[in-house]
Design brief:
By secondary structure, the chain is of the alpha+beta class. It has 4 helices and 7 strands, in the order βααβββαβαββ. The strands form 2 sheets. The protein has a 4-stranded antiparallel β-sheet, with helices on both faces. A 3-stranded antiparallel β-sheet has the order 5-7-6. A hairpin with a 3-residue loop joins strand 2 (45-54) and strand 3 (58-68).
Length: 160
């Protein structure tokens, strides 16, 4: 496995990331075509991409870090065939090395369905296991998404 970091996705990378997005996130968040996904990416400030690649540079995971409302946010997607093998943690750890704080929205219910009709697995336990805290008073409620805010903050060892 190899991780590629970039600030700009190539057309081929963008297509693969959108395919991952549409396959792994709830269907309500899907993009109809690359121009919609392009528009989404164009509206994000200071975007940094981390792509986890398998054989022949096939992207199996994508983590993005960006600025929204003066906070550092992230989103991550991993091909379901590669989940529960430590690859999501690997991507998160790279971002944790580069940033002091990471914020995210996480679906905290088990009612969402993916585009193939299967249930979307609620990822909250994964984030808790990886040092994130749930800010239960901060929620995102839209017609497409119901999520809770999570945050990871680097802890600095005390100086003795």
């Amino acid at each position: 496995m190899q991780v590629i970091q970039t600030k700009q996705l190539s057309a081929q990378q963008k297509e693969r990331v959108m395919d991952l997005w549409n396959a792994e996130y709830p269907a309500s968040l899907s993009y109809n075509d690359i121009s919609e996904f392009d528009k989404f990416l164009a509206n994000i400030d200071q975007l940094r991409h981390y792509m986890l690649c398998h054989q022949y540079e096939t992207i199996i995971g994508w983590l993005s870090v960006f600025i929204r409302n003066e906070e550092t946010w992230f989103s991550v997607i991993l091909d379901s065939a590669f989940q529960k093998q430590g690859f999501g943690k690997q991507l998160l750890n790279l971002a944790k090395q580069d940033f002091e704080i990471l914020n995210g929205w996480v679906i905290d219910n088990d009612t969402s369905k993916k585009s193939d009709g299967s249930l979307y697995t609620m990822p909250l336990p994964f984030y808790l296991k990886n040092g994130f805290n749930v800010l239960s008073a901060v929620r995102l409620e839209t017609e497409k998404l119901s999520a809770v805010k999570i945050r990871w903050k680097r802890t600095v060892p005390a100086v003795v």
